[in-house]
Amino acid sequence: QVQLVESGGGLVQPGGSLRLSCAASGFAFGSYGMSWYRQAPGKDRELVATISVGGGTNYARSVKGRFTISRINAQNTVYLQMNSLQPEDTAVYYCRRSLDYWGQGTQVTVSS
Q1: How far apart are the C-alpha atoms of 58 and 60, rounded to whole Å?
Q2: 32, 41, 46, 88: which sits with the fewest CB atoms below 10 Å from its CB?
């Protein structure tokens, strides 16, 4: 069955960095686009970044220039490198396969 397992979240100070990982299994990873979403308390879930099968990327305006999505197909893993983190980046971050399966999420908290 399809499984997406996120890791790498935690508490970081403003201006710091984190790298999230999403380990995928149960499907042909290289054949699917992948995305990262986030949901802050009291807010709707929002798209953060996407990466296509061919490696093309797109970002939300709020993270462009600070976050980088990447994938290593041989490792069935998609990453989200997050730099210059700010308190408004605090959220649960979710990995998603195309437009269907979701991971369980990993908490990112940016606070001094």
Answers
A1: 7
A2: 41
Q: Which among 65, 62, 95, 102 is positioned nearest to 83, based on CA atoms?
A: 65
Average pLDDT over residues 82-109: 97
Q: Does residue 99 register a pLDDT over 90?
A: no
pLDDT reported for residue 85: 98
> Which ranges constitute the DSSP H helices of 63-108?
none
Count other Cβ atoms within 10 Å, centred on residue 6: 22
Residue partners of 109: CB distance under 8 A and separation at least 6:
9, 10, 11, 12, 90
Structure-token pair, residue 88: 């408004």
Q: What 3-state class would DSSP assign to 88?
A: helix
